[in-house]
Every structure is written in C-alpha cells, then in structure tokens.
C-alpha cells in the first residue's frame, strides 16, 4: 500500500513524532491557561410597532417595517449615544471606544429579534454592562423614533431575555486549543519524521543490505542478549537464538558453491562496531562444532581483539608468521581440546600492515593451511577507513560483509563493495547483524532465501 512507507517512517521516528505531539499539546495548554478568562452575557430584545390594528395589510407592513429597522438598530448598539451613558452610569474605567470592542449586536435573519452580547473578564461586569446597554438602547430608540407631534414612539422594544451572570468563560476554549495543538504537533512531527526518514541512509533491513551489495544474505544474527553480553557463544546443550543463527550461517557457507568448497574467507565490515570480530569468532566456533578443522586468524594487525576475546596471548601471531620469525604451527594456539579450532592472534603491531598483508607470504600461508585441511577464517579491520580487509580478501576465497542493521549507512556499504571489487575480491555474501524478526521471514527464509510463514 502507498501508506506503508509512511507508517514505517513513523515507527522509526516515533520519538520525534511523540515529542512533537507532546510539545504541541503542552504549548497549547500553557497558552490557554495563561490567557485571562473571558465571560459573555447576552440580552435579547424584541422589536415591534405600536398602534397597529388587526388588518392583515397593516400587520404585514408593520412586520416589514420592524425587520428593516432591526438591521439598522444593530449598528446603533455600539454607538457613543448608547455606550456613553452606560460608562457614566456604571462608572466604568474604559473609554467609549474600548467599551465598543466589548459589545456586539446581531439581528437574527428574517426576524425582529436583536441580540446584544457583552464580553468581559468579570462575569458580573459582563451582566451589568449587557443589562445597561439594553436599557439605554431602548431609551435611545424611543427618543429617535418618536415623532415631534406625538408623545408615543411607533416602535416598541421589549426585553425577551434578561442578561444573566455567565456560568463559565467563553474563551479561551482550553479543550479545543489543546486538541488543535495536538493535531498541529502530530502534523508537524509527521512531516519532520518523513523528511528525516527520507534523508536517513541507515540500512533498516537485511533485504536492503542485499540490494546494495548484489549478494545473498548468508546469515541474519538476531538481537541476542546472551551474545551481546558475552560476545562469544560457547557450545551448550541449550543453544540460544544467536548460536542457532551461526550454525545456519556455517551451513549456508558450506553449500554456497557446489563446484568448489569455500575453504578460506575474510569477515569484514564497513565501519567499526558492526560485529565483524564477534561474527568471525562465532562462525569459527560453529564450523569447529560441525567437525571442520578450523583456524581463526586475527588479520587486524592494527587493533587485534581475538586474543582478548579468547583469553589468549598475542605476543606471537600473524605478524610473526608473515615476517618469517615463526611457523604457523608454533604461533597458533588451541582454544579448547574438545574442538578442532586453532586461534592465530595478530601478534606484535607492525609499522607497515598494508605491506605485510599484500605480500605473497600471506597467500602462501593461506594455501598451506588449506592444503593441511583447515578452513581459514580471517577477522579484519573495517573497509572504509583502511584497505587491509580488501588485501586479505585477495588471498582467500572471498569476503563476508557484516552489516549492522539500523546503524550501517548505505553509502558506507557502497564504499566497502567498491573497495573489494577494486582488488578483484569476491563478495561471498552478507551477514545482517542485530536484526529483528521481520514479517515474511522465518527459519527457512534465513537458510534457503525463500519467504515463509
């Protein structure tokens, strides 16, 4: 549906949306409560003619006469001739001009009813002024309409509704104002949310990551509290969602190519904190649990973390091997005796990581390990800051690109893909990290790449 993108945008920007609604409603409420309450008192007058008989023509003429007069009378109500005596009678502090802004008169259409309304901050004053205006208006009209030769005015004005003390203010309309504020806040917040979302380049789903790389999703690592707390998922009789996800990842890699088994790969990402080291470590553990002799190599010669993750010494490692100081068999360390898994730390930090990783000694080392029956997994630095991972990918069967859903940006992924392709490296697939279960994805869709219920 056309509304789906907007609904997703509102969900992603819900904090902004909620803040706008709260601010809109709060501002409207504050303004309403800061305003002085205004009260309105009304009086209604009936205009008729004196001395008309029961003849139909006379009655009709009288009715037309009073209706025409009523339209003119509405303008007289707020005139100085009416309001001046009212100011003097009640001792008001307002001028006639100020009082005229408080008084209004309307003639009901096609009737002889004149409605006078007075608004004031005091309900008692509103009643008193409305009553005085009505009385003074009646007196003025009788004087105006009385012929010089007659003692009686042909126009008779009667009060049909006396002015009363209003029970509540007519302004501000607090509930209405708050409702308008909430609606405006929602509209403004919605507009900002849609605008922010349209400019947001963050990858929000595994499908978006696959589209950007042109490569399949080989694994979807869920938001697993156990994994985020400990990083390394130890073998257990009660596997977590994260452990099961890595088992599926290693199975997908195993069956990625029917012609040639993937025996070496580099796990990398675009930027720091995407989970590439955790992914490489747990993938190696999953491969070893499946019975594959595996060696996990820390290819991050700048800030290697595997030795800390597995609680091993990093004094001797990949740097030592590439410099020819020690053989792999002497530098690699066994993590657990019940798993066919060796760990090769990064070793001492060299002054020239790029030269070491671009040397033929690296590819020779990888080939030798593969020939010995190992599956070789490299951890590596991120691709956007440095080229190290692309050089490692050249020496292996390809790269797994880790994308942290909800954090990695599309432009960062594009830069990573370009860096790998510039060295002729193959992108084996994408690992979507910290994903939430999406509609249309199930166990089978994660493993086989098809939709399921």
UniProtKB/TrEMBL annotation:
Keywords: ATP-binding, Cell membrane, Kinase, Membrane, Nucleotide-binding, Transferase, Transmembrane, Transmembrane helix
Gene Ontology MF annotations: ATP binding; non-membrane spanning protein tyrosine kinase activity
Membrane-topology annotation of the record: Multi-pass membrane protein
Root EC class: transferase
NCBIfam families reported for this sequence: eps_fam
Stated family: Belongs to the CpsC/CapA family.
Protein name (Swiss-Prot/TrEMBL): Polysaccharide biosynthesis tyrosine autokinase
Taxonomic lineage from the root: Bacteria, Bacillati, Actinomycetota, Actinomycetes, Cryptosporangiales
């Amino acid at each position: 549906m056309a509304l789906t993108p907007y609904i997703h945008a509102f969900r992603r920007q819900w904090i902004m949306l909620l803040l706008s609604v709260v601010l809109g409603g709060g501002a409207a409420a504050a303004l309403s409560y800061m305003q002085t309450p205004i009260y309105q008192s009304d009086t209604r007058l009936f205009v008729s003619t004196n001395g008309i008989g029961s003849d139909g023509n006379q009655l009709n003429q009288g009715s037309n006469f009073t209706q025409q007069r009523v339209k003119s009378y509405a303008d007289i109500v707020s005139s100085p001739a009416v309001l001046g005596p009212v100011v003097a009678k009640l001792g008001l502090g307002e001028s006639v001009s100020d009082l005229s802004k408080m008084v209004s008169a309307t003639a009901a259409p096609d009737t002889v009813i004149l409605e006078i309304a007075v608004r004031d901050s005091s309900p008692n004053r509103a009643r008193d002024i409305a009553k005085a205006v009505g009385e003074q208006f009646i007196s003025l009209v009788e004087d105006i309409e009385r012929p010089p030769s007659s003692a009686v005015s042909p126009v008779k004005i009667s009060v049909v509704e006396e002015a009363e003390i209003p029970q509540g203010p007519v302004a501000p309309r607090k509930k209405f104002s708050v409702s308008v504020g909430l609606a405006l806040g929602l509209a403004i917040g919605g507009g900002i949310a849609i605008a922010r979302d349209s400019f947001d380049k963050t990858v929000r789903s595994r499908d978006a990551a696959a589209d950007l790389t042109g490569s399949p999703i080989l694994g979807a690592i869920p938001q697993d509290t156990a994994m985020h707390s400990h990083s390394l998922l130890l073998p257990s009789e009660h596997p977590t969602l994260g452990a099961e996800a890595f088992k599926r990842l290693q199975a997908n890699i195993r069956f990625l190519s029917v012609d040639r088994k993937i025996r070496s790969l580099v796990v990398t990402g675009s930027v720091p904190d995407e989970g590439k080291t955790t992914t490489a470590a747990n993938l190696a553990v999953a491969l070893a649990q499946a019975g594959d002799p595996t060696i996990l190599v820390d290819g991050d010669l700048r800030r290697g973390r595997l030795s800390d993750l597995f609680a091993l010494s990093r004094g001797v490692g990949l740097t030592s091997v590439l410099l020819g100081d020690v053989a792999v068999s002497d530098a690699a360390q066994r993590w657990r005796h019940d798993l066919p898994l060796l760990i090769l730390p990064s070793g001492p930090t060299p002054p020239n990581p790029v030269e070491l990783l671009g040397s033929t000694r690296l590819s020779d080392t990888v080939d030798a390990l593969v020939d010995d029956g190992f599956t070789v997994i490299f951890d590596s630095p991120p691709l956007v800051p440095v080229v190290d991972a692309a050089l490692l990918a050249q020496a292996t069967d390809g790269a797994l690109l880790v994308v942290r859903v909800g954090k990695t940006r599309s432009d960062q992924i594009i830069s990573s893909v370009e860096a790998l392709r510039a060295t002729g490296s193959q992108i084996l697939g994408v690992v979507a990290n910290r994903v939430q279960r999406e509609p249309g994805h199930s166990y089978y869709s994660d493993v086989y790449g098809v939709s399921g219920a």
